[in-house]
Amino acid sequence: MWTLVVNCGSSSLKFALLNSATGETPLSGLAERLGSDLASVRVDRENERVTVPLPRGSYPEAFGVLLAELDALGLRRDVRAVGHRVVHGGDRFNTPVLITPEVVEVIRACIPLAPLHNPANLAGIEAARAAFPDLPQVAVFDTAFHQSMPPVAYRYAVPTDWYTHYGVRRYGFHGISHEYVAGEAARRLGRDPSGLNLVTAHLGNGCSVAAVQGGRSIDTSMGLTPLEGLVMGTRSGDVDPGLPDYLAREAGLSLPGITAALYRESGLLGLSGLTNDMRELEEAARQGNENARLAVDIFVYRLAKAIAGMATVLGTLDALVFTGGIGENSATVRAATLARLGLLGFRLDEAANAQAVRGQGGVITSGGVPALVVNTNEELMIARETAWVVAGGA
Ligand code: ADP
């Protein structure tokens, strides 16, 4: 079944046309700087890449280019559904759903939980509906996979009233990726997912780990917002909750200013003062830059602690999975992380670890508990989930 996968950010629209059974992707692309007069859309056809300017810089205009591309491929009438990545579904959705007016209202109600993302997702849904009025539209939530977490994992030790009135709890993110790589890891290990205890580490610009038991998430490192947990590209991850108050008093910073800095000026960028890009940091560290070295060390140190925590939650560990731009490509980060996790019984295979950088993934340990690299494919996961909903769901 041909499915159009749409992922809208606050000024971007990522799309892909996928065969949900085979993963074949004859068309994909990325519209950027929407909302400005510099907007353009990059279209990746099978053997060719073109960039088309978008003078109005709007979502409908970007969808217009997409329609023209589908016509050129002769595939417009074969598309059966549109699958949307939606960042926050609160505690209302634990599976993907067909988008109805009621679903739109719930996504709207979740805007306070994801003030940048959910409005963009809604704009994308509206524009897709106008462009494809006859197709079913499906919402696939980044939070849904983690809805299986038990209260012991998702509650914060704060006044209960904050939870009941304001939904202050842990939700978790990157669910589409964690679910995809957990399934793929089981397949590669030749094991039935229902009997597996996995820790999955999604390490991109945003980073999170999850404890996946029998194919279900039972804990994850991100919480109410995607700021909690690991050190990330520009996000701090865990800090003392007393930090905002301290900085407000001592540095005269405003609460929004502190929050913005925790999101955009912290993490690898904040520590190194150089860049949020792991590849550049590794290079700078090799050349002797001490701040870059410390940034990478802290990233790895905190990651290893979080993985060990997730292993404790699972009780036993069958495998550790690395994914995301860093997890898939940085042999250095993987080796340094496993070196800190001797307690869990990993034995790194250096040759396999170096090999895994070339894009095929695979097991990077020899003996002991396996660690493996799995390339994530959120678009394929969204296409599969969309096909599942269109076929009638659960
Ligand atoms: P996003 O979360 O935005 O989708 P990615 O999953 O693409 O991001 O991850 C981006 C991160 O992956 C960056 O820190 C980048 O430096 C890192 N990365 C990509 N290739 C390499 C590499 N060869 N070595 C180390 N890090 C890499």
Overview of this protein structure:
This protein is an alpha+beta fold. It has two domains: 140 residues, ATPase, nucleotide binding domain (Nucleotidyltransferase, domain 5, 2-Layer Sandwich), CATH 3.30.420; 188 residues, Nucleotidyltransferase, domain 5 (2-Layer Sandwich), CATH 3.30.420. It is 40% helix and 21% strand. It has 15 helices and 16 strands. The strands form three sheets. An eight-stranded mixed β-sheet has the order 5-4-3-2-1-6-8-7, with helices on both faces. Helix 11 packs across helix 13. The longest helix has 25 residues. It is globular. The relative contact order is 0.12. The mean pLDDT is 95. The site of adenosine-5'-diphosphate (ADP) has 13 residues, from helix 10 and helix 12. Adenosine-5'-diphosphate (ADP) binds next to helix 10 and helix 12.
Short recap of the structure:
Pfam families: Acetate_kinase (PF00871). Homodimer. With 394 residues, the chain is an alpha+beta fold.
Q: How would you summarize the topology of this molecule?
A:
Blueprint: E1 2-8, E2 13-19, E3 27-32, E4 40-45, E5 48-53, H1 59-73, E6 79-86, E7 97-98, H2 101-109, H3 117-131, E8 137-141, H4 151-154, H5 160-166, H6 175-189, E9 197-203, E10 207-213, E11 216-220, H7 243-251, H8 255-264, H9 267-272, H10 278-286, H11 290-314, E12 319-323, H12 324-329, H13 331-339, E13 346-348, H14 350-355, E14 362-363, E15 365-368, E16 371-373, H15 378-390
Parallel strand pairs: 1-6, 6-8, 9-12, 12-16
Antiparallel strand pairs: 1-2, 2-3, 3-4, 4-5, 7-8, 9-10, 10-11, 13-15, 14-16
Residues 204-206, 233, 277-279, 282, 324-326, 329-330 line the site of adenosine-5'-diphosphate.
